[in-house]
Write a structure and sequence with these properties.
This protein is 36% helix and 15% strand. By secondary structure, the protein is an alpha+beta fold. 22% of the residues are buried.
Length: 366
């Protein structure tokens, strides 16, 4: 019978590992034999091995440590050893996949992510009334629903159309139908996966036409419309500001490698600060809409100008992923990300403008 997997971490200096796991996480040394130390706490076990050669050639590992009381673990570590807290995850943060996490990092970059899953993970709901419930930035992947009433349910899952995902309704995978319908509703959207310079230029031109029409629509709506939020979502102006930031991230930073790529009117995503980034570079409050339009027009022109001269060779250049440096990108994949951001946020914007015009905004100026 298999009972557990016990991972191994190699260290050139074993005391560094003992400092992290024994002093930092209060694990006990249950066995010590020459270059081996076995540490354990509450059934979680790890082998620490002194082997300088292996430590030099192996990638420094990341370990997940699950708990049912993350607040107590965090309070203990942060009080005694705040120096071990990972600079990018130094406090308990709700992650997009539904777990609350914080992390520790030792001087050799061995990382331990302390994780507590939300109580509903793998739960079973029988004869439960969830009518009107709202799930935001939640992980419902793999959820199974049987004999349920989903009339009026509204699902917005921007990653559903990536990586061969499926969503089955009464046994039918509806993802291809959703993709085809979105391409029908938004002419030019299907070009966002273009692979060559001419195709990318065509894709961007279609986007510019689409956004121009939407900007004209907003200009004809009542004053203050750009700053109206529907159901707590970003306002139209905030959406434009986020696209400024997206361009700065993936073109200004990743491709053009500007040292300070961000426009102060950019709108960061919800997890920007909790992921360890400095939000003070962006203005707070509600800037004048005219200023937002100016910043947005400048970034649209930046993309257009770059695409005007880009070559196939340029598209193949390897770039640093601004959020996950361990996963390199290419110029082409960075441009694809910009195109995806543009189309997804245009879809959100049109959805909310429809709600505002229908008088069902449930919103307010932000």
């Amino acid at each position: 019978m298999l009972t557990r997997i016990v991972p191994t971490a190699f260290y050139a200096d074993l005391s560094v590992g003992l400092d992290l796991f024994v002093d930092g996480l209060r694990m006990e040394v249950v066995h010590r034999d020459g270059d081996l130390a076995v540490v354990e706490r509450h059934g979680a076990k790890l082998n620490l091995v002194h082997n300088a050669e292996a430590a030099a050639h192996a990638e420094r590992p990341e370990y997940g440590l699950e708990t049912d009381d993350i607040e107590s673990v965090f309070a203990d570590v942060s009080a005694r050893r705040p120096d071990l807290l990972h600079p990018n995850l130094s406090r308990i943060t709700l992650r997009p996949w539904g777990a609350r996490e914080f992390a520790l990092l030792d001087s050799t970059t061995v990382c331990v992510v302390v994780r507590q899953w939300e109580d509903a993970r793998r739960a079973t709901f029988v004869d439960t009334n969830l009518r009107g419930a709202r799930f935001v930035r939640s992980d419902l992947s793999g959820a199974v629903m049987r004999g349920v009433d989903v009339a009026g349910a509204d699902i917005d899952a921007p990653w559903l159309l990536q990586g061969g995902s499926e969503l089955r309704v009464n046994g039918v995978d509806v993802v291809p139908y959703v993709e085809a319908e979105l391409n029908r509703r938004f002419p030019g959207r299907a070009d966002q996966a273009a692979q060559d310079p001419d195709g990318l230029r065509q894709a961007w031109a279609a986007l510019e036409r689409t956004w121009a029409a939407t900007l004209d629509r907003v200009a004809a709506m009542p004053p203050g419309t750009p700053d109206v939020s529907v159901d707590g979502e970003w306002s139209f102006a905030q959406t434009l500001r986020h696209l400024v930031m997206a361009t700065d991230t993936w073109l200004g930073g990743a491709v053009l490698e500007r040292e300070a790529p961000y426009h102060p009117l950019g709108q960061p995503h919800a997890e920007y600060e909790t992921d360890g980034h400095d939000p003070s570079i962006f203005v707070r409050g509600t800037p004048p809409y005219a200023d937002v339009l100016t910043a947005r027009a400048d970034r649209v022109a930046l993309v257009r100008g770059f695409l005007a001269t880009v070559t196939r060779e340029d598209l193949a250049v390897v770039r640093r992923n601004p959020w996950s440096p361990e996963h390199p990108e290419t110029t082409l994949s960075c441009l694809h990300t910009i195109l995806e951001e543009e189309w997804e946020h245009h879809r959100y914007a049109v959805r909310d403008l429809d709600a505002i015009e229908a008088g069902s905004a449930g919103g307010h100026a932000r």
